[in-house]
Amino acid sequence: MSHALLAGISRTTEPRTMLRRFLALDAVVTGANGLAYVLASGPLGRLLGVDAALLLGLGVFLTVFAAGVGYLASRPQPPAAAVTLVVDANVLWAVLGVVALVAWLSPTTAGTLWIPVQAATVAGFAALQWTALRAAAAGR
């Protein structure tokens, strides 16, 4: 991913600001998803064809994860090791989402569409964050 593309997406040419914005976006989207799973696990479970208790547990995890990512986004210079952990967690989430879809979930049509979209979104966050982290480390 080129520096110009990242600058266009994040609306800044400063790598640390890019990184913080990508982390903040991840925190907002993940937090909203987590809260939706917590507050509406029953209806969403029926819509997606996923067990409500599983969604509730995932929602709690996502909400806590989002708070941590939001904290990192609020730091003037997020620690590289912590950002790498977020990137790794996002990659793992994306992979596990696809594996769960294929291996052990039996979702509805809505769930069959939602799970890969969510996995692709999270993988996108990981790619943006990793690229911005590398740019910040290079001192661009």
Q: Which structural traits does this protein have?
A:
140 residues; mainly alpha; 0% strand
Distance between the termini: 14 Å
Oligomer: single chain
Shape: elongated
Describe the largest sheet.
none
Word description of this protein:
With 140 residues, this protein is an all-alpha fold. Helix content is 84%, strand content 0%. It has helices spanning 3-10, 15-39, 41-48, 52-74, 80-103, 109-138. It starts with a helix and ends with a helix. The model has no long low-confidence stretch (mean pLDDT 92).
Strand and helix map with partners:
Blueprint: H1 3-10, H2 15-39, H3 41-48, H4 52-74, H5 80-103, H6 109-138
Summarize this structure briefly.
The chain is an all-alpha fold. It is built from six helices and no strands.
